[in-house]
Amino acid sequence: MESYLIWLVVGFALVIAELVTGTFFLLVLGIAAFAGSATAWFGLGFWVEALCAATVGVAGVFWVRRQRKTLQQPDMASLDVGQTVVFDVWVSRDQGAARVTYRNTQWDAEVEGEREIDQGQVLYIHAVDGNTLKVAKTKP
After folding, report:
1. pLDDT, tens digit, for every residue of 1-59?
2. What is the structure's pLDDT at 130?
């Protein structure tokens, strides 16, 4: 079997595997195998074919990694930021831990800033950390 056919079979196998996994790395390696196949078609010898495929593969992997970094979306602010909560009770005033009512449910909260708060006072959500609301008297 001709070496360019082997490179083609490997390239198609990698592209098909890419369709199953959904990462772009196998696609790049498949394209690198196609480059090796093209080099083999011109009869340049195995080491030139391997070098061509390796160069295209390494360059493609670096390109995919760079594209993934630039395409990552920044963290979205929580939709709860700016909403009002009602202060219920202190869990630990020294640490700023409290319980508040938000959406008719009790939530853990960390009070930021001034801690002179009375029961029933309205506070505003500044951030959400897991299941803990970070709240303060002022609007964000």
Report:
1. 889 999 999 999 999 999 998 888 999 999 999 999 999 999 889 999 999 999 999 99
2. 87
Among 1, 69, 76, 66, which residue's Cα sits nearest to residue 37?
1
Q: How far apart are CA 48 and CA 40, in angstroms?
A: 8
- The candidate with the shortest Cα–Cα distance to 111, out of 119, 102, 94, is 94
C-alpha 123 chain-centroid distance = 32
CA atoms within 13 A on the CB side of 99: 6
- Cα separation, 105 vs 80, in Å, equals 14
Give the pLDDT of residue 57: 95
Phi, psi of 129 (to 5 degrees): -120, 95
Given the DSSP bridges, would you call strands 122-129 and 132-136 parallel, antiparallel or unpaired?
antiparallel
Residue 3: half-sphere exposure toward Cβ, Cα within 13 Å: 16
